[in-house]
Each structure stands twice: as C-alpha cells, then as structure tokens.
Amino acid sequence: MAIPERIHRNIDTRYWNPGAEYFPVKNRYTAGVAGQRFFEELKENGKLFGTKCSKCSVTFVPARLFCERCFARLEEWVDVGLEGVLYSFTHVYRTKSDEEKENPSIVGAVRIADGLLMHHLGECNEKDLYIGMPVKAELKPVGEREGKITDIAYFKPL
Ligand SMILES: [Zn+2]
Question: What is the number of structural domains in the chain?
Fold first, then answer.
C-alpha cells in the first residue's frame, strides 16, 4: 500500500501490525495549528487570514506557522480580505472518481497576498475570464459554514 492511499483501519497498513485489535481511522490529515485558526476565522468571522514573515515580507495564504523561505516562525496574522486576482483557471470535465461530469465546472487559482487558493469559479461567463481578473470569495451563509475551504462557495469576478 502506497502512502497516499486512504486506509480506514489501522490494520490495513503494512508498516504496523497491531494484531487482531484495530481502531477506526476517521481523519487522514489535521489542519495543524495555523490551519485550525485559518479555518476558524473563515467559519466564525468570514475572514481569510495569512501570516506574514517579517524577514521576507511574504504573506502566506492560507496561513502557516513557518516561512518556507527562511524558516522563521510566523507570528503576524494578517486579514487579507476576500479579494484576489485570477492567476490561472481550467475546466473540469471529470469527477474525482474519473466519471464524466454532467455539468463541467471551472476551477481557478486565485492569488491572495502572496498565496494561491484553488477553488471553484462561479457567477461568471467562462468567455469573459482572463488571467489577472479581480475576483472575490463568495462565502456560504454563517449557519452553513463548517470550518472547511468549502465555506467559500466560489470566487466570482468583481
Ligand atoms: Zn521568511
């Protein structure tokens, strides 16, 4: 079993054999300390936060704890707003399970501060999209947010 494969019981891994006992594995990844706060701010306050490196002046979005350039601990949290710029986009014709989608969707990479968020694009005509287009996150209503990146329903042109 390769590492990226999903397992649902610890006994399915070949690197650890606990015998007959097993416990269910419900989550594969943790969002981490910075990710937890990033998603809590998104859910509770409808804000996107990054963290800024005081040495490199780079603002990472989503927020992280350490600068990937100089390894400094990042402690300055920055409200980067909900607006960004379309960095790239593409059409998606197949589902994750490789089935043809009934309605193809558009996915974009949106630059916010010095970071990129991959997300769906909505309320747009694909023929009008262009690299560098100003876009804004459209959030789900407060009661529907779960602390996930899907709390952003989509990005739309400004
Ligand atoms: Zn740095």
Answer: 1
